[in-house]
Design goal:
Blueprint lengths: L14 E5 L4 H9 L5 E5 L12 H8 L3 E4 L13 H21 L3 E7 L22 H16 L3 E6 L2 E2 L6 H8 L6 E4 L3 E2 L2 E2 H16 L8 E5 L6 E2 H11 L6 E4 L19 H7 L6 H9 L2
Helix pairs in contact: 1-6, 2-3, 3-4, 5-7, 7-9
The structure holds NADP nicotinamide-adenine-dinucleotide phosphate.
NADP nicotinamide-adenine-dinucleotide phosphate binds next to helix 1 and strand 4.
Length: 298
């Protein structure tokens, strides 16, 4: 019998295309994955997921061994009014990326969200729980998950939550900005999650890719994994830590989600159970408070 061909993503220096390379996660992936191969970062101007018909031309030219999709429509409230666009970027285009991964025999790494769940569970969500999104963004991300799983034979689907970095739009940067300009801040104290630093997600992605680079060639990954920081908190306690670490004196008032209405409904419980990541790969992300402190030093 002829020996199986080694997949190209197991080469010593795979060609790694990163979409959404200017986003919070995309920027950290662009740095972290240099340790693995040749990184080709693409911004929206080179690879627009709202125009999925143009994607095949981009990938035919770049001939990737690994495709990392860090691009996404992430405006959760706006998605309620732009669901067609959100679902084209987060759903349809991910299906096209999966077709491109199949065509080029590339490994596809894609990121999803706790927002595929409704948040009604009392404990952390595991990979075996059935998704049931309660907003347009969640529905669009779930569409992407399903398209990917149906089409791409080699993939890593990584769900994460409450993402932050020093660059980009996120809760951390918003609270630190507002605390310097407002007399007091109201912060929701009845939603639970684990703030997760993009640098930790990028390093986890690198470790997973290194694992598969060295795995027996018969092992093509088709994995759904929850990737989030250890520990749990509320938005209110997260904001309190941020102000303490930055020595900002702005008073914080805890409020319920009911008193703080937003366009999109949010899950009460965003906690992701990361046992599968730990037992299968030996990877545990740092406690959320440690990562927040380290991030603030960058
Ligand atoms: N942020 C969170 O709290 C959170 C939570 C759970 C999961 N996630 C998931 O984690 C992943 C990374 O999120 P992130 O926080 O890094 O998001 P982000 O900072 O909003 O970055 C998203 C990137 O996607 C790009 N993008 C948007 N529409 C595009 C389009 N039509 N074509 C090409 N690029 C487009 C954006 O480009 P521009 O800069 O040009 O807008 C941006 O660079 C996403 O899959 C997201 O769904 C995020």
């Amino acid at each position: 019998m002829k020996p199986a061909l080694q997949p190209r993503w197991q080469n010593n220096a795979p060609r790694i295309v990163i979409t959404g390379a200017k986003g919070q996660l995309g920027q950290d992936l662009t740095v972290a994955l240099q340790a693995l191969g040749t990184v080709l970062p693409l911004g929206r101007e080179h690879c627009d997921l709202s125009q999925p018909q143009h994607l095949p031309g981009v990938f035919d030219e770049l001939k990737p061994d690994i495709i990392i999709n860090a691009a996404a429509y992430t405006a959760v409230d706006r998605a309620e009014d732009e669901e067609a666009l959100a679902s084209r970027v987060n759903g349809t285009a991910v299906g096209v990326l999966a077709e491109q991964a199949l065509k080029h025999q590339a490994l596809l790494v894609h990121y999803s969200t706790d927002y595929v769940f409704d948040g009604s569970k009392n404990e952390a969500y595991s990979e075996t729980n059935t998704p049931c999104p309660i907003n347009a963004y969640g529905r669009s991300k779930l569409a992407g998950e399903l398209a990917l799983q149906q089409v791409a034979p080699a993939h890593l689907l990584l769900r994460t939550c409450w993402v932050y970095s020093r660059h980009g739009q996120n809760f951390m940067n918003t609270i630190l900005r507002l605390a310097q300009t407002r007399p007091k801040l109201q912060v929701v104290n009845d939603q639970w999650g684990a703030p997760t630093w993009t640098r930790d997600i990028a390093h986890t992605t690198l470790k997973l890719l290194q694992h598969y680079q060295n795995a027996p060639i018969t092992t093509a990954p088709a994995e759904l994994l929850h990737v989030s920081a250890s520990g749990k908190t509320s938005w209110f306690d997260y904001a309190s830590l941020l102000l303490r670490l930055q020595s900002l004196a702005c008073p914080l008032e805890p409020v319920s989600s009911h008193d703080y209405p937003s366009r999109a409904q949010r899950p009460k419980n965003s906690l992701l159970d990361t046992t599968r990541l730990e037992t299968r790969y030996g990877i545990v992300l740092p406690d959320w408070q440690d990562s927040v402190a380290r991030c603030l030093l960058t």
